[in-house]
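Bench log. Compound arrived from synthesis this morning; before running ITC I wanted a structural hypothesis for how zinc ion sits in the protein. Inputs:
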Amino acid sequence: MPLVTSKEILQAALEGHFAVGAFNANNMEQVQAIVDAALEERAPVILQVSQGAIRYAGLEFAAAMVKAAAAEADVPVVLHLDHGTDFDQNIRCLRAGFTSLMYDGSKAPYEENVAVTSRVAHIAHVCGIPVEAELGRVLQAADGVTDEEVRAAMTDPAQARDFVERTGCDTLAIACGSVHAMQSAEAELDIERIKAIHAAIPETPLVLHGSSGVKEESEVEAIKHGISKINVATMLNQAFTRALRESLAAFPPEESDPRKYLLASRDAVKEVVRHKMRLFGSSGTVTSSGFVSPATTHRTADIGGTEA
Ligand SMILES: [Zn+2]
C-alpha cells in the first residue's frame, strides 16, 4: 500500500496502549529487514531516516527505498524524518514525499523552538503531514553525560502543555531519562514525569528517543502512560555490524560476494525489530483490511503485565 501518515497509527497506539516502533534505516538491507518484520508481525511500522542517513544515502534515494518497500507491503508504513535540524530540511523532506516530519529545536531557546516548530507544523499541516517536535533534551552518550545533566534536561510537564498549544505539533519527543546511542540497556525512565506530561497533554502521543539504552521493563511501563512511538536505532546498528563481523570471519577470505555477508546482517536486524514489535505490543494490531485496530488488542507487550 502507499505510505501512510504517522497521525492515524499513533492515535490508534495512544488509544490502544501500545507503541509503534520507529526504526532507523541507512541502507537497503535495513529497510528490507524492518518491513519484513512488520509484515510477519502484522505490525504498523515507522521507517525513519536521520540527517546522517540522508547524507549517506541521499534524500531522494532514501525516500525511494522506503516507498518501494511500502508499496509491496500490506501493513501501514510511514516514512519519517528523524531529528530534522532546521526548517529547510523539513520542507525538502515534505517535497520528497515524507509522511511524517520532525523538527528538533530542543537545543534552541524555548521561544525559538516554539517559533520554528509552529512554522513547520503550519506548512506540513497544509499538506496533511504531521510533525513531531522535541521539548527538553535527550542527550548524547558520546558526550559523557552525568545523571544530574540527564535530570536537568528533562521535559517540564507545564511547559509541554504550553508548547503543544502554541505550536500545534502532532507528537512530542520528551526527555525522561534516556540518552541517545547508549551501548547497553541500563537506564530507568522517570515514569512519574511521563505520567505528569501525559496528564498535561493527554491527546498528544509521546515519543521516546534513545530506547536502546533503556531497560525493557521501563519501556513497557512508559507505554502504559502515553509513550506511543519508540525510536530504535543503536540496537539495529549493533545487530547489523555484529552479524557482518561474524560472517566475515566465517567465510573463506576469497569469498567476494557481498550478498553472502549481508544476508546475516539483514536477518539479525529483522530479529531485533520483531522482538521490539512484540515488546511494544504493536504485533498483531493490523487487521486483514490493513487498518490498525486498537480494539483488537488493548494490551501492552509481553513483559510487565497488561493494562485493562
Ligand atoms: Zn533521537
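What the model suggests: The chain is about 45% helix and 10% strand. Residues 83, 138, 180, 209, 231 surround zinc ion (CB under 6 Å).
ITC booked for Thursday regardless.
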